[in-house]
Every structure is written in C-alpha cells, then in structure tokens.
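Suppose you are handed a protein chain with no further information: no name, no annotation, nothing but its sequence. What can you learn? This example shows the usual starting point.
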Amino acid sequence: MKKWVKQIDPNNKYGGAFILGDRNVELPSTAVVSVTRGEQFNIPRLIINGFLNQMIMKAMSKNEDLLYAELRGQLEGGIGQTMTVWKAGKEMNSFRTSGMHNFSRKFFSWVFYSGKVQSYFLTWKANGHIPSYDEASEIVTTYGRHFDGGKLVKKASQPPNELSDQKPS
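A reasonable first move is to predict its three-dimensional structure. Written in structure tokens, the prediction is:
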C-alpha cells in the first residue's frame, strides 16, 4: 500500500499538500490526469471537504490503478484542488463512481455546487507528463467544466496536446 506524505509550505502557513506516489513515475500511453478544483469554500465547506478527502485518501492508497495523487488546500481564498493520475480513464471513472468517492459525490455535492463556490472539473490524456500544481490549476480553470454556485457556466473542452506534452524545465 502506498503512503501519503504531508508537505507544509514554509512560505505559507495557510497552505499545504498531501502527495501519494512519485511524480517521476513512468506513464503508460493510456494515462489520464484528472483535476477537481473548488474556490471560495467557506470554513464549514473546507472542513467537510477535508474530512471527505481523508476518507477518500484511504481508498486511493489501496488502488493499484492510481499512479499519482496530489491534494492541495489553501485557506486564503478557500481553495481545494485534487489532481490524480490514472493508468487509464476507465480506472479513474470506476473509482469516481464507486465506494466512498461515489458516496461523497451523491450526499455532499452541495459542498461543490452551492453558495459562492466556483468549481472546476477536467480529465485529459497525460501525454507522458504530470503537470505542476500551477499548470494543473491553469488547465482546469481554462478548459474544465465550470460551475458558479452550482450553475454550469462553461462546458469542458480538451486542452491542446502541446499543453500536456510540455516537460517541466
């Protein structure tokens, strides 16, 4: 079983990350990146989202089809972002629609879909590259499905391949 590693940002006492796996893992050609991002969570929503993430993280650590995961939170701005990298889209979808993740989606969707929350969701082909947090944020907010307080304001579109093909410098 893989272990989650907690990372504290020394420059920001209100932000941090949990990492599962190795960012330098060799990706199969079928690998996909999936990003979920919420902005403007109030404190109760952040607490509930954190609790649900803890439950989902247990299942992630046991899933052999998950290659890499990164959960980041930022109290300022009420931001929560989850990035997962899967062997293939089929495996990601299977995880999303079963177990604790599916329970959370069904019964706690109001965390992401009401109030002032801005929500973004996108899955795309990895093309051999795991994006950084900033790259993933830019890709999901530019190309992802976007909800404003639960109302769909933009449908998802796939990012150009050259975005996914960029290697970190």
